[in-house]
Specification:
The protein is mostly beta strands and 200 residues long. Helices cover 14% and strands 40% of the residues. The protein has 4 helices and 12 strands; from the N terminus they run βββββαβββαβββαβα. A hairpin with a 2-residue loop joins β1 and β2. It is globular.
Length: 200
Amino acid sequence: MFSGIIEEFATVVSIVHDQDNIDFTLSCSFVDELSIDQSVSHNGVCLTVVSIKDGTYTVTAMRETLERSNLGLLKVGDKVNVERSMIMNGRLDGHIVQGHVDMTAECIAKEDAQGSTYFTFRYNYDPEMARRGYFTVDKGSVSVNGVSLTVCNPTADTFQVAIIPYTLEHTNFCDINIGTRVNLEFDILGKYIARLQQLQ
């Protein structure tokens, strides 16, 4: 489980295809603190460390993960938001993020907000998925590329987030432009509430 508070971005140094899987090798400042089998969030996707070597580590993404996320679009040199799993006696500064990406969204607008930046994202609206809690609500939480954010101005298939300069500089939001695809994880609390309503 994660909090959506990104530690830094890692850099992709190698991509190897193995049948339907892809092995991503990355470098970041805390490689020496990692261990095999440890869970690390990559653009909001929980992946397991399978190898550590020469200041890099490797994780494997399977086909379903690649189909639901933007990881299959990564190239060598790309920046990836990374967060290690939560320590249970720590503060939850973001919100509960499982690392289970629901779908991708496309950035359709980016505008200056007098110091911060507004990003607008559009995702595929599905009424059945919405009934199961896959939607955004005003002032609710959403994870975008693993970053815990507050929703503004939601519609059935779009929402905005406001990014402060620190977040823009220290996550891969610095590389997000109109047309960029990002990973979304909707708030787990909304999914549970929707499920409870279905069972009544």
